[in-house]
Fold:
Amino acid sequence: MIEEETEESITAEVLAKAGNTADPRMRQINEAAIRHLHAFVREVRPTDAEWERAIGFLTETGQMCSENRQEYILLSDIMGVSTLVDFINHHHGDSATESTVFGPFYVPPPEFENGEDIRGKLDGPPLYVEGRVTSTDGKPVPGATIDIWHSDHVGFYDVQQLDKLGELSGRGRIHADDEGRYRFWTARPKAYPIPNDGPAGKVLDVQGRHPFRPEHVHFMIQAEGLNKLVTQVYAQGDEYLDSDAVFGVKSSLIREYEPHDGGTAPDGKTMDGKWYSLAFDFALSPEAG
Ligand code: BEZ
Ligand code: FE
Structure:
């Protein structure tokens, strides 16, 4: 006998169909999606007009995506989902440097020698960055590949203004020396708003949130036998540390961008006027054998 269809029975019916999914992982994902989606709809009880609006929102999000813009990732970022996925996949114990969101502004960087200036065509006060790459057991990681990228002193990345700059700037790849040490010069970045002229921006508006990220420098560090580390170092004292639009800040990643006026830099360079220095050591966990 066919049972009467009800608001409750529809979930069981759809779940039964998904139960035929052959691949066990795909079955788990499909079933969880159905359970949570149905629970969401039961809780919210959308009107027809609201449901149409939801479909319109998702359509607009897809239409905003292009080779240079990934609106779904932005949406995942501002809802804290990117950070949650990062926690799930990249928590490598308390002695490893914490990871954080990758962001949309990475492109493969030009190579530099340890100690060189990666600012390219960016303006802004000089920033000297140095530190060490070790494994979590404290051993140096000679030759570790360190990719660096950051915004300019107004808050824009090079890839957002390539027509004006003419070349990649404020990004570079260097390699740690025999003791795992790295150093480079660049131009100090600044807090900036994430792209907020699309659906993700509308969500921020509706929730009464600003689109800013606190000042930071991105790092991606890779070495054989160790887990890749994608992270950022945030400027102590930044006004957005407690309200990062993408929930990327972790207190272990905050450091002072130490101010200086003239004098001699750690690499012996004579300085004129204002400049800053930042020190950060990275510890990478071993890959699971
Ligand atoms: C970034 O830090 O570059 C970033 C991260 C998430 C969304 C937008 C920008
Ligand atoms: Fe960034």
Q: What stands out?
A: Residues 74, 77, 101, 103-105, 194, 213, 246 surround benzoic acid (ligand 1) (CB under 6 Å). The two ends are 55 Å apart (CA to CA). The first strand starts at residue 126 and ends at 135. The helical segments are 9-18, 24-44, 48-64, 71-78, 81-89, 162-165, 199-206.
